[in-house]
Design a protein that fits this description.
single chain; mainly alpha; Arc Repressor Mutant, subunit A; 4 helices; 75% helix
Length: 68
Amino acid sequence: MGKNFSEYLTSIKIKEAEKMLLTTDHSITDIAYETGFSNVSHFISRFRQYKGITPAKFRKHVIIDNMR
């Protein structure tokens, strides 16, 4: 796999967060906690590290792109 357990678990959490960002209207805070992050700023930081964009911008850009 090339990842340690912590990195693997974080990637699973980020994938779940992506789904929730696109399919729910839950707040970023709620999504952070629902995907197992205990700190919202840590969630945002890790999301940005994995996706190159913040969760809010991800949600906004994907929705806008789908409207086109």
